[in-house]
Amino acid sequence: MAVAYSDVTIVVDEPDDLFYTRAALHAHRPAEGRITVQPTPASASPAALAHDMLYALGKRLAPGPNSPDVWLDSVNAAWLAAAAWGVAMGVRHVVVPRAHLLTIRRIDQLLAWHESTGAQLTLLWQKAPRGLPPALARVERRISGRDRFEALLAEPGPIPAPPSLPPALPATAMAVAARQSSAPQPRGTRAAPKRPHPCAGALATAQLVQAVPAIGVASEGSAALAALVHPLIAGALSVLAFTQTGLGSLRFTRDLDISGDVCVIKLHGAGHRHCPLHAVPAWARPLLAGARAHHRLMARSPRESVFSPVMLAEARHLRAHAGRLPQLDLSLLAGILVP
After folding, report:
1. Beta-bridge mates of residue 9
2. Burial of 63 (0-12, 13-18, 19+ CB in 10 A)
C-alpha cells in the first residue's frame, strides 16, 4: 500500500517485498529527471544523506582526509549543493528506498530539499506504518497495489521552478549602457564626468558583439568536471577550461553575466576595460546552470559575483581540484590570481 499527500508519497511495504526495492532501483534514470537515492547504512556523518543524494546525481566526492571537498562535510553546504544540482539537472522525482532507517532529522532534511527544489519525493517505508514520524503522519490519499506503484514511478513529476531573482535592468537599458561604455572619445578632449553605470550583462552584450568560440575540451576532461560535487567549483573550472583564461576573469562574473539559456558567459578584466563574451559549449551548460542555481538558492543579488565563495583563501579549493585533473590544461591557475 502507498499513502500519498501533496507531491510527497510514502510507500508502506511492511513485508519488505523485494519487488518494491527492485522497481525503485530500476526507476533511476537521471536523464529523464528521476533519481533513486540509496541511503548509506549506519553512517554517523550528519551530511551522509546529502552525499548520497549527490552520488545519485552523478557527483563524486574527492577521497582522502585532506580532500578539497572536506567543506561539504557541513550539512548546510552539502544540501545546498544537492539542491543546486537538482534544480540545474531538472530533477522531477526522487525515490528513497529504506526510508524507515532514516532519523527524523534526515527525513526533515529530505523534506526541506523537496521544498527548495519542487521535485516529487517518494519514500519507501519498509516496516509497519505505525512508526511513521509526525512529519509524515498526515495523509490525504492512499494508493495500493504493484501496478499503482509502477504507475507512480512512471509519472513525469512536477517541473521544478528555478530559484527566482530580484528584477534586473531591462535588456534595452543594459544595451544602452554597453554602447555608452564602448563609445570612443575624440582625441584631445576630456570626457564629461558622468555617473557610474554597471557593466552590461551577457544578454545586452550579445546584442552588440559576437561571442568568442569555446576552446575544445576532450570528453574525458568534461566528464571529470561533470563529476565534481560542488556546483561553484565545477562551474568555475569549466569556464577556465573552455576559455583558457585566469582566475581574475572569474572574480567579477555575476549572475547576469550568464545568459538565460546558459549559451554565453561574459568575463571581466581589470577596470572592465576588456570584458569578452564567450560561447559556452553544450557539455559545460549544466555545470554553469548548477553554479547559477547555487547562487540563487543563497538569495544573492544578480549583480553579486557568482564564484566569490570559492575565490577565498587564494582559491585553495579550486587549485586543489585543478591539480586532481591532469587531463585538463588548467596550468593558468598556478600563476594568475588577480588580488
Report:
1. 4, 122
2. exposed
